[in-house]
Amino acid sequence: MTSTTDSGAGTDAGTDAGTDADAVRPTLRGLGRRWRQRREAAAHLRRLLPYARPGLVALTLAVHVVAGAAPVAFMAGTGFALQRVVTGEPATGWLAVALVAFVVQQLLAPVQLVLSRKVQRRVDAACIERLTSFAFHGATLAGLERPDVADRLAQAEEAFEQWTLTPGAALEGALALTARYTQLVGAVALLAVVVGPGAAAAALAVALVARVGQTEGFFRWGRLIRSFGPLRRRVTYVRELATGTRAAKEIRTLGLVGWLEDRYVAENRAVLEPTWRWRREVYGAPFVVYALVAAVGSVVALLLVARSGADVAAVSIAVQAVALCGRFGVIFPESDVKLVYGRSAWEAMLELEDAARRTGAPARADGAVLRPAREIALRDVRFGYTPDRPVLDGLDLELRVGTSTALVGVNGAGKTTLVKVLTGMYTPGAGSVLVDGTDLRGLDPDAWQRTFAATFQDFLRYELTLRENVAMGAIAHVDDDEGVAAELRRVGLGDWLDGLPQGLDTPLTRAVPGGRDLSGGQWQRVALARSLFAVRHGAGVLVLDEPTAQLDARGEAEFYDTFLDLTRGVTSLVISHRFSTVRRADRIVVLDGGRVTEAGTHDELVALGGEYARMFEVQARRFTDGSPPAGPAAGHADDDVEVAP
Ligand SMILES: Nc1ncnc2c1ncn2[C@@H]1O[C@H](COP(=O)(O)OP(=O)(O)OP(=O)(O)O)[C@@H](O)[C@H]1O
After folding, report:
1. Under CATH, which number does the domain 29-357 receive?
2. What is the pLDDT of residues 219-241, one digit of tens each?
3. Most buried one in 173, 320, 380, 518, CB count within 10 A?
4. Nearest CA to ligand 1 atom 31
5. Does ipTM come in above 0.95?
6. How far is the CA of 410 from the centre of ligand 1 (A)?
7. Residue closest by Cα to atom 6 of ligand 1
8. Which CATH architecture fits 458-539?
9. Contact (Cβ atoms closer than 8 angstroms) between residue 297 and residue 179
10. Atom of ligand 1 nearest to the CA of 414
C-alpha cells in the first residue's frame, strides 16, 4: 500500500507540490519503492480475504481457473481436431474437448459474474460495518477533527456511495485476474507444444513486460487521482452550494450567484487540467508504448511460428495463442480499474484507522457513568490544536459539584476548547484534569464523556421524531414519554407540544408526511430539553455552550428566569456572552490569554473592577443609552455582549 508517510497522497492536492512526485516522473530510485508499494498493496488486499470467507474465495478462484482454461482448451481442441482431419485420423476426441470447452465457457460466464458480485457484496458489507464501527468507537474527536483523517474518511465514504470503486470491487478484480493468468499459462504451454520453447518464452516475456508496464502506469495514475481527493471534494462542495436548497437563500440575497459560478469553473479547472495533463503523461504515454511492445512482440512471435515449419493446424493454434498473450498489452477492464480505485478506498480506510489511532482511540466501555462527588479540577492545563499556538496556557479551574459556573471570554478565548478538554475529547499537552483528585488519564474515557449532558453551539438537529430528538440525551430511556414531555415544558415548548397532532411522534423534518421543521429558536429549545433529559437520567454535569444564542428576547428571558430551577443541584458549566445568563451563576470565571484571570460571584467581580466589570459596564451602557460604547472598551471589537443585565 501507499503508506501515509511515503506516498504524499492525501496531502494538499491540486498543486504539483501536493501530488505524488514519483508517480508523475518515475525515477530509478522510485522503482524499488514502487515494487515495495506493490507488495504492500498485495498484502493489504489479502487482508480483505477473510471478509469474503474462504469457501467463497476458493469457489470463485476455481471457477476463474476453469473459465480461464476453457478458451485454451477450445483452441487446443479445434486445432488438434483440424490436425487429425488433415492427416486422416479420427478427430472425435479433440472435437469433444472443443465442444465441452465451448459449453463450459458459455456456462461459466454468468457464474463468474454472480460469484464476483457475491465476493464484492460480502467484503463491502464488512467494510461498511468496520468503517461505521470505527467512526463510532475507534476515533476520538481529536482524530476526526484532523484534516488528514477527515480526508481519508471522506474518501472511504465516497467509494461506498459510488459502489463500483469499493474494497470489495478491488478484491473481486484481483480474483478475476486468475482467469487471465490461467489463459496466459495455457497459451504459453500450447505454444511450447506446437512451436517450441523459444516462441513460448518470447510470447511470455512480451506479455509480462507489457503487463508490468501497463499496470505500472495505471497504478501510478491511480495514486495521482487519489491525491486529488481534497480538491475534488471542494469542487463538489461548491457545486452543492450552488444546487442545494440550504444555501440558496443566502446566495441569492447576497448576489453571489455569478461569483459562485466563476468559482466553480475555476475550482473545476484546477482539478481537470492537471488531471488531463497527467493522464497523458503518466497513463496515456506508457499505454501506447506497452501496447506497441505487445504488438511488436506478437509479430515477432508470429514470425517465429512461421519459420518453425509447423503444419497448418499448429500454426492455427499458435496464432490464437500469440493473440491471447498479446492481450496482456492492455488494461483489463474487469480487474485493473476495480483494483486501482477500489484499493484506494481500502487503503484510505486503513490509513484513516492508523492516523486516528495515533491520536489515542477511546476505549469501549460498559455504559457506566462517572459521577464526581466533590469537584472537577483543571490544573495548569496547556493545550493547543497545533504545538505553536497554545489555546489554553496554564489554566486552573475548579467546578464544584452541585454548583453552577459561568465561563466568560471574548471570541476565540478558548471556552469551547476548555469544554473539549474537560470532557476528555482532547487530552491536554501538559497539566491534568482531576476528578475528585484522580487524574482523568486513569479513568474510563467513555464513562467520563457520558457524565456530561452538553448543548453545543452547533447542536444537532436530528431528522427523527420529537421524542427521539429529546431522548437522544439518554437513549436507553426513549420510552419515558413523561420525562420527554416534562423537559419540553421546562424549556418552554409545552403549548407547542400540545398543539402537535402527532405529539411526540411528530417527525422533525419536512421530508416526510406530517413532519415539521422548526425555527432556530425551537431547535435550540429541543436541544436544551435533550441535555436536561440526560441529566434527568443520570448525567452528572450539564454543559451549555451559548444555550440561548438563537432564542428571541422573550425566550431568553424565560429561559434565564428558570435557569436556576433548571440547574438546581446540578453541576453546570454555562458559556455565554450574555450577562443576563452569566450573572445568575454561583461562580463566574473570566478566560483570557488561555488562563483564568478572574473568578468570583457577579457582585465580587463587579466590585473588583477588572475585565468582567468592564464588559458588564459595556452591556449596561448599551442597554441604558442604546449607544455604542466609547473609551477603552470600544477597542474590544470581539466582545459580543448584547443583552442587558
Ligand atoms: N478544531 C480546531 N482546530 C484548530 N483550531 C481550532 C479548532 N477549534 C478551535 N480552534 C481555535 O482555537 C481557538 C479557541 O477556539 P474556541 O472555539 O475554543 O473559542 P471560544 O472562546 O469558544 O470562541 P467563541 O466565543 O467564538 O465560541 C480559536 O483561535 C480557534 O480558531
Report:
1. 1.20.1560.10
2. 877 777 777 777 777 888 888 77
3. 173
4. 412
5. yes
6. 11
7. 385
8. 3-Layer(aba) Sandwich (3.40)
9. no
10. 18
